[in-house]
From TrEMBL:
Naturally occurring in which organism (per UniProt): Streptomyces pilosus
Stored PANTHER family: DJ-1 PROTEIN (PTHR42733), PROTEINASE (PTHR42733:SF12)
Protein name, as recorded: Glutamine amidotransferase
Organism classification: Bacteria, Bacillati, Actinomycetota, Actinomycetes, Kitasatosporales
InterPro entries: C56_PfpI-like, Class_I_gatase-like, DJ-1/PfpI
SUPFAM superfamilies given in the database record: Class I glutamine amidotransferase-like
Domain annotation DJ-1/PfpI: ranges: 1-173
Keyword check for ATP-binding: no
Family the entry assigns: Belongs to the peptidase C56 family.
PROSITE patterns xref list: PEPTIDASE_C56_PFPI
Amino acid sequence: MRIAFLTAPEGVEQVELTEPWQAAVDAGHEPVLVSTEQGKIQAFNHLDKADTFPVQEVVGEASADSFGGLVLPGGVANPDLLRMDEKAVSFVKDFFEQGRPVAAICHAPWTLVEADVVRGRELTSWPSLRTDIGNAGGTWVDEQVKVCDHGPNKLVTSRKPDDLKAFCETYLEVFGAEAA
């Protein structure tokens, strides 16, 4: 299965990109780095620059229907930049409209809030997003990983890097079941 990993050109939390990416590879999937610009993205370890990664597809040219699922890594700046990009928000909405599974960790649900897809859903995130999720009609829960199947697709969310093991196991299980 091809899995889109959507990030902004900078600000993604490196471990929230690399661990779910490697989990996808280990499970036999094809992760694809999608961003708002061509070239490379700059990852961060909290506030410090980390590695760069090559963009494989650009939002606006990429299509949700060419992927089996979507992973939204966190980092504070990453989802903040994505939610300001109309094409990125539209790309995320397309996954929900097509009933494809989506996984988001840490601050990534900010992009989901902007895409107006959290209404009626239970999800988790970094705790500072609690009010934003509530104001967007969602219900925030403090759980290591939350699977919500309200609507035509499943949404997998986790709070922080410490939850990555559970996040990776759960998103791969959900994506695999949806593909079957």
